[in-house]
TrEMBL record:
GO MF: DNA-binding transcription factor activity; zinc ion binding
Its job: Stabilizes TBP binding to an archaeal box-A promoter. Also responsible for recruiting RNA polymerase II to the pre-initiation complex (DNA-TBP-TFIIB).
Keyword Transcription included in the entry's annotation: yes
HAMAP family: TF2B_arch (MF_00383)
Gene3D superfamilies: 1.10.472.170, Cyclin-like
Residue stretches making up the TFIIB-type domain: 30-60
Organism this protein belongs to: Halorientalis brevis
Organismal lineage: Archaea, Methanobacteriati, Methanobacteriota, Stenosarchaea group, Halobacteria
PROSITE patterns reported in the protein's UniProt record: TFIIB, ZF_TFIIB
Residue ranges, compositional bias (Basic and acidic residues): 18-29
Extent of Low complexity compositional bias: 1-14
Membership in a protein family: Belongs to the TFIIB family.
Protein name per its UniProtKB record: Transcription initiation factor IIB
Any GO BP annotation: DNA-templated transcription initiation
């Protein structure tokens, strides 16, 4: 190929590039020009609109605001409110800041790994697990938080209760309250205390049913923890059990309202002090169901509340008498 041909080809390529660049510039310029008067367009992020600076024509509206929904007035507030990365949580021993290697032996495209790659990934998982729990305290915390999460899932407790229970256990571990006590016992006591603090109480029998300790160890550890950590926990209110019992028995809202009224009448008559709140709640639900002509047996209520039928019979008669007196 001659020099003249090469120069001609380069000139054509240069001309094509210049033509493409000029076309792109015209397109980008036309996008920022008002279609009515040819004025400049500006973006009003406060109102989510693109308007013409000259004639005021609204070219676009209801635009997506891609900025944060919070405001910061200094650098420290900006650092505190920024949500870059995954959130930290007290429900994991490392607060969720470490890396987790998945258990599936597949690559990013879903293809299975070869035998040598699987062995390599297994070694990486082993070393990653060793680095995540570097000492006995972290191993203790990991086991306890896993136990709290398991029991809370079985009891249907929300995430806020699990977070509170994790904080209580961390405090007990930091203040050296665990020597001489089992990890499962302290974890169960922490979850029981957190559930009562948050207004989602569970009975001791319900806790023991999902725990790996007996009731004596659980209650003894619970009393020790609340005394040493100075936890302020009010006595359980029978009304806090009523919605759950009504829902488990598939009863109506009328029964729930009636049970609350019976408990209020019993409180005014002084019947609630010194008695099990679970038994009172179960008896109130049973009595309210009878008054509302809804079919439910003492055996069904007993199974839901994990108490004896004798307790239900004794308490519901007392509540009905208190209602008659108040009427």
């Amino acid at each position: 190929m001659s020099d003249t041909t090469i120069r001609t080809t380069e000139t054509e390529q240069t001309g094509n590039r210049e033509t493409t660049e000029s076309t792109t510039e015209r397109e980008s310029t036309s996008e920022q020009v008002c279609p009515e008067c040819g004025g400049n367009l500006v973006t009003d992020s406060e109102h989510g609109e693109t308007v013409c600076r000259e004639c005021g024509l609204v070219v676009e509206e209801n635009e997506i605001d891609r900025g944060p929904e919070w405001r910061a007035f200094n650098s420290s507030e900006k650092d505190e409110k920024s949500r870059v990365g995954s959130p930290t949580t007290n429900m994991m021993h490392d607060k969720g800041l470490s890396t987790n290697i998945g258990w599936q032996d597949k690559d990013a495209y879903g293809r299975s790994l070869s035998s040598s790659q699987r062995q390599k990934m297994q070694r990486l998982r082993t070393w990653n697990e060793r680095f995540r729990t570097r000492n006995s305290k972290e191993r203790n915390l990991k086991q306890a938080l896993g136990e709290i999460d398991r029991m809370a899932s079985a009891l249907g407790l929300p995430e806020t209760v699990r977070e509170t229970a994790s904080v209580i256990y961390r405090r007990a571990l930091d203040e050296d309250l665990l020597p001489g006590r089992s990890i499962e016992g302290v974890a169960t006591a922490s979850l029981y205390a957190a559930a009562r603090q948050s207004g989602n109480p569970r009975s001791i029998d319900e806790m023991i049913a999902v725990s790996r300790v007996d009731d004596m160890e659980m209650t003894r550890t619970y009393r020790y923890i609340i005394r040493e950590l100075n936890l302020e926990i009010k006595p359980a209110d029978p009304e806090s059990y009523v919605p759950r019992f009504v829902s488990d028995l598939d009863l109506s809202d009328e029964v729930e309202r009636g049970a609350r009224e019976l408990l209020e009448d019993g409180r005014q008559a002084g019947l609630l002090s010194g008695k099990s709140p679970v038994g009172l709640a179960a008896a109130a639900v049973y009595a309210a169901a009878l008054l509302a002509n809804e079919k439910v047996t003492q055996s069904q209520v007993s199974d839901v509340a994990s108490i004896s039928e004798v307790t239900i019979r004794n308490r519901y008669k007392e509540l009905l008498e208190a209602k008659q007196v108040s009427a």
